[in-house]
TrEMBL record:
Biased composition (Low complexity): 1-13
Ranges where the record places region Disordered: 1-44
InterPro entries to which the protein is assigned, alphabetical: ATP-dep_DNA_ligase, DNA_ligase_ATP-dep_C, DNA_ligase_ATP-dep_cent, LigD_ligase_dom, NA-bd_OB-fold
Superkingdom, taxonomy of origin: Bacteria
EC number: 6.5.1.1
A molecular function GO annotation: ATP binding
Name of the protein described by the UniProt record: DNA ligase (ATP)
Recorded catalytic activity of this chain's protein: ATP + (deoxyribonucleotide)n-3'-hydroxyl + 5'-phospho-(deoxyribonucleotide)m = (deoxyribonucleotide)n+m + AMP + diphosphate
Record's keyword annotation contains Cytoplasm: no
Length: 355
């Protein structure tokens, strides 16, 4: 038997009472102050990095946290809703140059975050080697698009997490959140471990193992861009960036050079700080010579005041070299200098400034 149609009495309550009438929500109640309120901060497009001040000796005290100083490229890893960005210290997008780090970052999602860290390539002993990183990336210039597929990002700070800007939070809390975020990661993104020991003893061990040094961070300070003193570094071996301002030709290697002339800043000008003649292979020297010949200095007066007797081919101070050295001579020249590689301009490396 067929059921009769349902009665459409005035008591029926359709989903929308009257399609002609406007739809209105209930009046909004005032917020109860006792209820928790969660504010969300927009993710910064870019953050100027915090930089470590160079110290001759590590400061003492329980307010300092210590870790290894890595020798590589400073990077900011942005994990965003629409993808991953890997930015250099100068703010340039190098995502395409670190595919393994990008892939590992995607695996950390769907959280949104900004991780501060250093991209390195490790040698056979597990030490970061800037020269190996440069070989992996390729030299500056035409090969600047090369990829470092074997690079690792050592994460050492967390600046943003899931809608919350953490730069105003003290370092000890940021560190706990970072450890929770990247713990147990053993791939292309790893945690830069803190070292719980007397910093003088840590420095001694770091130097004996051939590491560059140690970095200390004040546990109670927020994240502040620039060299504020919240972060300090103590080095085993000096390693700084210098301008290449010329080269000494070599009779034994006509396509290369005998040594490079280096310069640093002093009072806003660049001055000669000596030569470097070791640290590069024949192939590297030949490649570098071609780059330098395109930058030849056309003026009679050289770019720096030079007191040496060698016949120098001067070049515009454009290329920046990472140089490892042991000390300074009494007349302000580098002692036992070794060439480690070119700093890429997008990295925004600081050329060394003399007092």
């Amino acid at each position: 038997m067929t059921k009769p149609p349902r009665s459409t009495s005035t008591r029926s309550r359709p989903l929308l009472r009257d399609t002609e009438a406007p739809i209105r929500s209930r009046p909004r109640k005032k917020r109860n102050p006792s209820e928790p309120q969660f504010s969300f901060d927009p993710m910064p497009d870019r953050v100027e990095p915090a930089l470590a001040q160079l110290k001759a000796k590590p400061p003492q005290g329980s307010e300092w946290s210590w870790e290894v100083k890595w020798d590589g490229y400073r990077l900011a890893l942005h994990i965003e809703p629409n993808g991953v960005r890997i930015l250099t210290r100068g703010g340039h997008d190098w995502t395409h140059r670190f595919p393994a780090i990008e892939q590992a970052a995607r695996a950390l999602g769907p959280a949104t975050m900004i991780i501060d860290g250093e991209a390195v390539v490790l040698d056979d002993e597990g030490r970061s080697d800037f020269g190996l990183l440069q070989q992996s990336l390729g030299a500056s210039g035409k090969k600047a698009g090369n990829r470092a597929s074997d690079a690792i990002l050592y994460a050492f700070d967390l600046l943003y997490l899931d809608g919350h800007d953490l730069r105003g939070v003290e370092y000890r809390s940021r560190r706990h959140l970072l450890e929770d975020t990247v713990k147990d990661q053993e791939g292309a993104i790893r945690l830069s471990e803190t070292l719980d020991a007397d910093p003088a003893v840590l420095l001694e061990h770091a130097c004996r193992l051939g590491l560059e040094g140690i970095v200390g961070k004040h546990r109670g300070q927020p994240y502040r861009s620039g060299r504020t003193g919240d972060w300090v570094k103590v080095k085993c071996v000096e390693s700084e960036a210098f301008f290449i301002v010329g080269y000494e030709p070599s009779a034994a290697s006509p396509a290369g050079f005998g040594s490079l002339v280096l310069a640093a800043y002093r009072d806003g000008e660049i001055i000669d700080v000596g030569n470097v003649g070791t640290g590069f292979s024949q192939a590297e020297a030949t490649k570098l010579r071609k780059m330098l010949d395109k930058l030849r200095w056309k003026q009679k007066r050289p770019p720096v005041s030079y007191t040496g007797e060698a016949d120098i081919v001067w070049v515009h101070p454009t290329l920046i070299a990472q140089i490892e050295f042991r000390a300074w001579t009494a007349d302000g020249k580098l002692r036992h200098a070794v060439y480690k590689g070119l700093r890429e301009r997008q990295d925004n490396a600081d050329v060394f400034k003399l007092d």
